[in-house]
Amino acid sequence: MTEETQFGPFARYVQKSTKIRPNELRAAFLSFAFVFVLMTAYFILRPVRDAMSSDWSDEELSWLWTSTFAFSVVAVSLYGLVISHISLRRLVPAVYAFFAASFVAFYLGSMSVADPTLVDKSFYVWLSVFSLFHVSVFWSFMSGTYSKEQAPRLFGFIATGASSGAIMGPLIATAFADKLGSMNLLLVAAALLLVPIPIIAMLDRLKVTELGNAGLEADMSAERKLGKNPFAGFTLFLKNPYLLAIGLFIVFYVIMNTFIYFELRKLLAVFDRDVRTQYFGAIDLAVNSLAIVTAVFATSRLATRLGMGATLALVPALMVGGWLIVAATPVLMVLIGLQVTRRAGNYAITRPGREMLFTLVDPETRYKAKPVIDIVIYRGGDMATAWAYTALTATLGLGLAGIASIAAGVAAVWAVVGMYLGRNYDKEKEK
């Protein structure tokens, strides 16, 4: 009896629509569940953080953004030190157990002090670091679980778990915040972060038994430890042109994100807070719904048929055209359409494609240099772009049309970097 016959019509349907093979079904769905739980936990906590920010001035928030970048550097360095003394078998479960414990600690701290302002601000910064850290570690684990051949077919489907969690988390927060109390949601998220621990163990076994990747680098079943230099991730990043290109790719993505975010804030300022909340909620719903459909039915086909170069350059190319449309028609709904396209394209195409790039690197790079790129470079780009945007608008007096014109040029360079990275990946994959 073949595996396809054993799994029946469901396996044939899944294989046809997503390119998942029958022997990969268990691992793919467990990976989906893994990131679904992670993103559900994060999106339960994000409204709690954003609600806190309403109590602070713009100056206080600016300092918190700066603190987030500084703490990201420290956190990644400490992470590099810790993983030098722990085996890969225990690394990923330990990360999520640690974050779960940290949110319990924030809950207890908030409940035990008369004025929780300092605790709240610390939580704001900590969650901003967590928002990138937990996803980076997840994709590091994925790139060490699936082979270079499997990743282009499976990562798009797995990424739909993130979009699904991004829908479920806000629904839980909206439904239960008033009943449980917003701070009690920290305990809910902490409990959810423990769910991936048994999933990690199951994926570790399936990697050998069903995926056939026993010889893949970074085998989590091996009692293997990484090098002991806590700053190795920074050194690896700076010395490797391939990693520098990935970092540059991230920076261009951040520029797109920051420019749209600041312009949306301006255009929505004429509405009251409730209307703005409705707009942002509608954007989130449209983004995640479109991302799920795209990831299930398009991502794997793009990566396998067009190659990684075209896959990574697709969203940047769309952004070039989108920004030019915004420059010609600088109105709210056009900018919202661009935001939906950008975020959905990132979740469904760009992010999975970017994570596939790390299937080519060794464990030291995957677990030490990748967090530098995903967290430090991202947050550094965030901060630098915010100041650059301020200079362009406050100093040079550029409006939305001017910002859009500059952004279109940046997106064009972003597309070139994506093409370079993708072609490099395709060449290495064929070796």
Topology:
Blueprint lengths: L2 H5 L1 H10 L6 H29 L4 H25 L5 H25 L4 H27 L7 H30 L4 H8 L3 H14 L22 H8 L1 H28 L4 H34 L1 H21 L3 H25 L6 H33 L4 H30 L2
Keywords summarizing the entry:
Growth Hormone, Chain: A; 431 residues; disordered N terminus; 0% strand; mainly alpha
Overview of this protein structure:
- The protein has 431 residues and is mostly helical.
- It has a single domain (3-429), classed as MFS general substrate transporter like domains (Growth Hormone, Chain: A).
- 82% of the residues lie in helices and 0% in strands.
- It has 16 helices and no strands.
- The chain has helices at 3-7, 9-18, 25-53, 58-82, 88-112, 117-143, 151-180, 185-192, 196-209, 232-239, 241-268, 273-306, 308-328, 332-356, 363-395, 400-429.
- The chain is globular.
- The protein starts with a helix and ends with a helix.
- Mean pLDDT is 81; it is low at 1-5 and 218-223.
